[in-house]
Amino acid sequence: QESRTDWWSEARFGMFIHWGLYSGAEGIWKGEKHRHFNNYAEWIKYRNRISNEEYGELAKRFVWEDINPEEWVIQAKKAGMHYITITAKHHDGFALWNTKVGNYSFKNYDPESRDILAELAAACKKHDMKLGFYYSHWVDWEHPYGWDHNRELTQDLSDEQFDEYWQEKVIPQLRELLTNYGDVALLWFDMWLGHEETIVQEKQLRQVISLVRELQPNCLINSRLGLPVSDPDIDYETMGDNQLGAVYQKNPWQTPGTIAHSWGYHALENDWKSSNQLLQALINNVSLNGNFMLNIGPRADGSLPYESVSRLDDMGRWLEINGESIYGAGGLELRPKQH
Ligand code: JFZ
Fold first, then answer.
1. Is there an atom of ligand 1 within 6 Å of 40 CB?
2. Closest alpha carbon to 104 in 59, 157, 42
3. Residue-range domain boundaries for the chain
4. What DSSP state is assigned to residue 139?
5. What does the pLDDT average to over 65-90?
6. Is there an atom of ligand 1 within 6 Å of 19 CB?
7. Domain 6-327 belongs to what topology?
8. What was the pLDDT predicted at 250?
9. Cα–ligand 1 centroid distance for 328 (angstroms)
């Protein structure tokens, strides 16, 4: 019996791309001393309480004549990857595409900018690469009624306010993403795991699911949407960072991994994992019938750090020689497929 996750279970290895205004900050903000909660480069707006306007100015650091998403696709191919997931909207609330919903997107901050998701979608089509979108659905630091961890210390966000954010930003933006960019292979919702007091309601999540099923029936939905993995509408489980799947994992699953620490580009990080470590993460996951999605954080000019390129190329070379053991009925299939 065919299922919409068939391609996914064959694909095994994907590319995650964290790219947004934070890429222009490179993890560094004037006077930042206290690194609390986490020190991810892509969390810089939150950590430094940067206003929407000032943060938007980071758009000026983007070098549009050098930015070419096709290069990311070619790099993914070379690494042996079969799908790409890009941060359409991260927690900062800033849209990478030319959204008509609100004004927090490149086109309103830099007249030279282009619709990067349109270009990436075209490049993926050209190179036979599946494309998916990361969308931060409950955390949004731009919208006054999106979830912001600092709010816990200040005021309570009412259910009505949060639903206003949901209906006027989340739903119409997802509609755009599922309408204007061709086939969307998967959606990657994000949620801080273990956060009990989430304000998202089940009926809001069901609304998203209906929208996805209506507009793109083949699109996969991940578990960080906020419903249990056992829910029939959750197509695959997202594990924690570099976490391996449980042996009796029933659902399709994947681990998202970073090459260093942050997901977005950070100029000062140098805790790179080795090519061997990354290959072992991939092989471990595949041996447990799971996927591995390795993240890159391009700079504001679209380029990738040498350290990332060299690791991706190493993995691609290894897969070229040994790939059959991963994709065929090879020695790494320790147990029969369960789905
Ligand atoms: C979240 C984001 O906050 C982060 O910026 C990045 O986008 C990442 C992919 O997702 O961070 C998480 C959330 C959960 C875990 C790790 C990082 N986890 O469960 O290990």
1. yes
2. 59
3. 6-327
4. B
5. 97
6. no
7. TIM Barrel (3.20.20)
8. 73
9. 31
